[in-house]
Specification:
Radius of gyration: 16 Å
Helix content: 10-25%
Number of helices: 2
Shape: globular
Strand content: 35-45%
Distance between the termini: 31 Å
Strand order of the largest sheet: 1-2-4-5-6-3
Number of strands: 6
């Protein structure tokens, strides 16, 4: 599942791709009431998800089999500002890559261009390993 449209979490946020290719991606998301924290500003977890997605999608290519999926190895985030309405843009750019790992950076910006947060991360090409032998967690 490397296609952005196949990502159920990002789809649930209402995130869409503005542009994608050549080591760069721009993701747009209109702020909705469910994206806000108790102060009425964009919630930090939503910002983190957009930064992770922008960094990750910047390095993958759905048309290249070996580089059509990736998993996050590390992600460092700096929160700088806040916004209460409008839309945000998450822009990710690859800063370096090897055979199996790539590095990228991203920013989330407000409609007026202010940087709300930035991130740097490392990512490994391939799909996540899922432990299918793990015991089921009981639901309460």
């Amino acid at each position: 599942m490397s296609r952005f449209e196949d990502n159920p979490f990002l789809h649930s946020l209402g995130a869409t791709i503005e542009s994608w290719g050549d080591g760069r991606v721009v993701i747009r998301m209109a702020l909705q009431p469910n994206h806000l924290n108790r102060q009425g500003a964009l919630q930090g977890g939503v910002v983190s998800a957009l930064l992770d997605a922008a960094c990750g999608y910047a390095g993958i290519d759905p048309n290249h089999a070996e580089r059509s999926n990736s998993v996050t190895i590390s992600l460092a985030i700096n929160f700088i500002g806040s916004v209460k309405s409008g839309h945000v843009l998450a822009t990710g750019t690859v800063t370096g890559s090897g055979r199996k790992i790539y590095f990228s950076q991203a920013t989330v910006t407000a409609p007026d261009g202010r940087v709300l947060a930035s991130a740097q991360g490392s990512f490994k090409y391939g799909s996540p390993r899922v432990n299918t032998d793990a015991p089921e967690v009981p639901t309460v």
